[in-house]
Prior knowledge:
Elements: E1 5-11, E2 23-25, E3 30-38, E4 47-56, E5 80-88, E6 91-102, E7 106-107, E8 114-121, H1 123-127, H2 135-141, E9 147-149, E10 189-195, E11 219-224, E12 243-244, E13 251-259, E14 270-277, E15 280-286, E16 297-304, E17 308-318, E18 325-331, E19 336-341, E20 344-346, E21 358-359, E22 369-372, E23 387-395, H3 402-413, H4 421-430, E24 439-440, H5 459-470, E25 473-476, E26 482-485, H6 488-492, E27 499-500, E28 516-519, E29 526-531, E30 536-540, H7 542-548, E31 552-557, H8 563-576, E32 580-583, E33 585-589, H9 596-602, E34 608-614, E35 620-635, E36 640-649
Parallel strand pairs: 24-26, 27-34, 29-31
Antiparallel strand pairs: 1-2, 1-5, 3-4, 3-35, 4-8, 5-6, 6-8, 7-8, 9-23, 10-11, 12-22, 13-18, 13-23, 14-15, 14-22, 15-16, 16-17, 18-19, 19-20, 19-21, 25-26, 28-32, 29-30, 33-36, 34-35, 35-36
Helix pairs in contact: 2-3, 4-5
Amino acid sequence: MGWPVVTTDIDFTTLLTTAPxxxxxxxxxxxxxxxxxxxQYELATPEAGxxxxxxxxNDEALSPLNTSSSYGSANLxxxxxxxxxxxWNSVTYGVFQGNVEQWPNAWDAHGAYGMSRVTCVDALALxxxxxxxxxxxxxxxxxxxxxxxxxxxxxxxxxxxxxNQIYEFPQSFGSSTYRAGTPYPLAAWGPFISNDYxxxxxxxxPAQGTIGVDGVPGLSWIKRRASGSVGQAGxxxxxxxxxxxxxxxxxxxxMWIVPTQPSSSSVPEAGLFTIVNGSSTLECYITNGTxxxxxxxxxxxxxxxxxxxxxxxxxPINVMDGEAHCVGVRYDGSGNACLWVDGVPCNGxxxxxxxxxxxxxxxxxxxxxxxxxxxxxxxxxHGDFGGVMGNVAIYTSSIPSxxxxxxxAQAGLTGFxxxxxxxxxxxxxxxxxxxxxxxxxxxxxxxxxxxxxxxGANIRDAVYSxxxxxxxxxxxxxxxxxxxxxxxxxxxxxxSTVTFGDNGTTDIPYQDDVEYRTDPQYLYNEAxxxxxxxxTVTVVDSTSQGKYLVSSFSKTLDVDNDRxxxxxxxxxxxxxxxxxxxxxxxxxxxxxxxxxxxxVLGAVIGQRxxxxxxxxxxxxxxxxxxxxHIDHDVDGAARTWVTTFSLSPAVPTAKQPFLxxxxxxxxxxxxxxxx
Length: 675
């Protein structure tokens, strides 16, 4: 029988921040390997893929201690990309792609025969090593701000926990407790104000937190105690002259605010930020009703040769409502700008809808100064900002697009509640500073809840949560593609792609015999399904419990509605209340039949297959299954390629959900509604 051409490549130089490209062929060293990916059965948690590869290493080229290694001993470090591919009948199949975790070395008793049996993991394992910030911070830093001040740190800190990354506070910005700025020393700052998310409200509601107390979990912002020239309770100001913006004449300044002033025309207008170019400034501030309609609207204007001032933009959204608001100004080097509040653009007096940058009369230059939380002392006589300010970001060379500005606002206002599971997964993967893998993400049907609780979680667990809520699966394909399938994939895949059996002419043979089981291991006649902050639904089938006793299934969904909670509970009991005939696994030795090679090499998680077993009596046992887990065990010298497929039963015909536009399952008054 034939044997495929197996190639093994390692990228010894490319960092995780970019896709592997500098592949080095090490196929002549590969003595054999094993690899696996998937989950054990249809309701189980996915597992990160793994591989073990035995490399011939007589010359110690794969030893990190060998400074003369042809691959460079400094390159033999963890997480180097590795891929295994196989070519059969001119078709190239990806078998495994991941990253080397370690480079062990061993020798025989005489020291003449060396081997390095490296262990590898796929991208899902690496996702587990990548910790998230909260969703607002993740959306903010995804667009690479030059400066970023979360303004939510513990007041006892004097140094930043993020090193020299973009979270580090510049020395000149005194309002961060990472730096003891002047004239307001560290001791002048109060502890956390914590604001918990509430449905149907903006994300950060001051009423949900307690000033001066480390309150309930949520995004925490620092609030300034009374101090400074204005003397308003809760005033916040930089206490310094400016922050210098380098290298470009255009940019975008964004911040989140819960202002406490101005409350009337007798209170000075509150400055949010001022860009200073000599005697000319571009100011963003909250109105107090003097000369304009309303109190508490965000305005942008230009002052020059103080105190001359011209107001250019006035946003209709009032920010003096006790809620948090996202305020940003995008400007170019020609003095054109656009004001954004809560993701809504404004380029005139109450003129919303257009994102066109309109002239302000102010011409910024490279290395202009920006005052945060105050007005320019020599310009218009606006007051310093009073209230809560956080998540301040300044973008220069990398300016967010209009859609990204809207995303920043939605991160704080809704936490992206209502987006599909596929969109949530794509969003999470987009937070990676690296992604050496391509992706294939199914759209999904679950309507996700707000992305709370990300801070401190890792990306893999967050992705698993979204996949579990969807009722789908995630895995890394043999070519390294991070792949998800939604719950509809199983219901709508009605045709088997291959038959495994003992008919030597038409079937792909399996090794040994098969063992069918009909037992209560995965029987559930009670389902308790809930969602955080929502409904808990319990569904029971008393007939099944009378036959098989009580077997309970429980799950918490991360959705924004109760409908899906009830749907899943009903579906679980309907599908699993009776024992099912299961075939845990089948084993295929592809070397036994050439027709098995494309089947084994091209197999994917979620593929529908048929398994037949012909008894001596002539009766044929015939069931359809889905592949849940794939395990390859390969010995090149012995010419054995053994593949084990873990299986789950396809939905029985009697329980097949309703399918639109299907001649059999799309008829009215037939079938049931699936989850």
